[in-house]
From TrEMBL:
GO biological process assignments: carbohydrate metabolic process
Name of this chain's protein: glucan endo-1,3-beta-D-glucosidase
Comp. bias intervals (Low complexity): 354-378
Gene3D superfamilies documented for this protein: 1.20.58.1040, Glycosidases
Annotated source species: Anisodus acutangulus
């Protein structure tokens, strides 16, 4: 009876909380504002757009002065970022860290509500053995600079991780951090614990569906009616992939005795279109995922292992980024178009908060047809994989600017080791953009599964059966 009274109390409490703080004020909904595009509206117009929605936080990948200034005096929380390229200087020189904080934080704060400084993006899983050990010292120097400015308790310092920091995530109760990153992650998480800063992760049910394109997986990923999946370790039935992924991270923290470290979802989203051979992108799927995610967060239901609280979640992304390389889906995550119109309605407008799709169901799908827009559950048949040894090479005549974009993109992906093309590496010479891009593009193709669409790069690459290796420089390749 005591448990029932306590549950009733919390139910009343949360209903009261929602009445006091309506959807417009629920600050756990954020958005990623990427700028790898040449058609974005001015920052001032974008800020007006954001203010017309229930979005309360914006994550930037850098520290763009125009955007930070435009967000001044709006009350919108701002996450800024120091680039991976800044990490060596931040790690080695406390004065540089102080100057960086002066230029990118103190110049705007408190009018611009900066709440987090992210040092680097997916560094731990980048494979860059020179950069990884410098990440924590860089974060410590930024933290010390903020402390010196009496902002240590107000602005948090973190970094963003891919879900591949986990070696195990299914079932969620078995979540474990990869031993490959063990010492590095333990030190980073201890930093978070000591400074009260969040662990920021990028869970994408979209990619989970791509690796398992069954109809029941699609429904599970989209928060749509499904039979659920029982965690064999805890006995908990999960009704959506988002909760399962977040709880896997929680379990990993718990296994290391660090469950008090806050989890923040730095990126999650679903593309509304993609290349013909990509499984999953569609307007219906994107609308269902993002709309149901927002409703799930607003319900304050939480996850099974973290009930009654909504994890701060930054949806990817505010706009499409038309200059991104890779498959078409990479350029098609935008909630809004450059003309400020919605790509599709997910109930973010302050004027209309009507849920677009049902909140996560708690039971199997009813026999009646659901009211949600239902996407065709028959996956697109992927193009056949090549059958012999193949390598992914740039197309002749591709401009260096596009090759540089391909190079940057490939080397930024988790699990991609670009150290052979760094100074002193066996593939550093010839020291040209074309040579380095060729190596990086091939590594991404080989690592991503050797599918034809992994060697597209906006139609600047093609497959070859001719081994491009030379001297001591070996281009990975192999039979499928």
């Amino acid at each position: 009876m005591a448990t029932q009274r306590l549950s009733s109390f919390f139910l009343v409490f949360f209903v009261l909380l929602q009445s006091l703080y309506p959807a417009e004020s629920q600050a756990f909904i954020g958005v990623n504002y990427g700028q790898v595009a040449d058609n974005l509206p001015p920052a001032a117009e974008t800020v007006k757009l954001i203010q017309s929605t229930s979005i309360e936080k914006v994550r930037l990948y850098g520290a763009d002065p125009a955007i930070i200034n435009a967000l001044a005096n709006t009350g919108i929380g701002i996450v800024i970022g120091a680039s991976n390229g800044d990490i060596p200087a931040l790690a080695s020189d406390p004065n540089f860290a102080g100057q960086w904080v002066n230029s990118n934080v103190l110049a705007y704060y408190p009018a611009s509500k900066i709440i987090v400084v992210n040092v680097g993006n997916e560094v731990v899983t980048s494979g860059d053995q020179n950069l990884i050990p410098q990440l924590l010292p860089a974060m410590q120097n930024v933290q010390n600079a903020l402390n010196a400015a009496s902002l240590g308790g107000k602005i948090k310092v973190s970094t963003v991780h891919a879900m591949s920091i986990l070696s195990q995530s299914d079932p969620p109760s078995s979540g474990l951090f990869s031993p490959v990153f063990g010492d590095t992650l333990k030190a980073l998480l201890q930093f978070h614990k000591e400074n009260g800063s969040p662990l920021m992760i990028n869970p994408y049910p979209f990619f989970a569906y791509q690796s398992d394109p069954r109809p029941e997986t699609l429904a599970f990923c989209l928060f749509q009616p499904n039979a659920g999946r029982v965690d064999s370790g805890s006995g908990i039935k999960y009704m959506n992939m988002f909760d399962a992924q977040v709880d896997a991270v929680h379990s990993a923290l718990n296994a290391w005795g660090l469950k008090e470290v806050q989890i923040v979802v730095a990126e999650t989203g679903w593309p509304y279109k993609g290349d013909p051979n990509e499984v999953g992108p569609s307007v219906d799927n994107a609308k269902a995922y993002n709309g149901n995610l927002i409703n799930h967060l607003r319900s304050m239901k939480g996850t099974p292992l973290m009930p009654g609280i909504s994890v701060d979640t930054y949806i990817f992304s505010l706009y499409d980024e038309d200059l991104k390389p890779g498959p078409g889906s990479e350029r098609s995550f935008g909630l809004f178009k450059p003309d400020l119109s919605a790509t599709y309605n997910v109930g973010l407008s302050k004027d209309v908060q009507t849920p677009t799709t049902p909140v996560t169901p708690v039971s199997p799908a009813p026999a009646t047809t659901p009211t949600t827009p239902t996407t065709p559950v028959t996956p697109v048949t992927p193009a056949p994989k090549p059958t012999g040894a193949t390598w992914c090479m740039p197309r002749p005549g591709t401009p260096d600017s596009e090759l540089q974009a391909n190079l940057d993109y490939a080397c930024s992906m988790s699990g991609i080791d670009c150290s052979p093309i760094q100074a002193g590496g066996p593939c550093f010479e010839p020291n040209t953009v074309a040579s380095h891009a060729a190596y990086a593009m091939n590594i991404l193709y080989q690592t991503a599964g050797r599918n034809p669409w992994n060697c597209d790069f906006s139609q600047t690459a093609s497959l070859t059966s001719t081994n491009p290796s030379y001297n001591d420089c070996t281009y990975p390749g192999g039979n499928l």
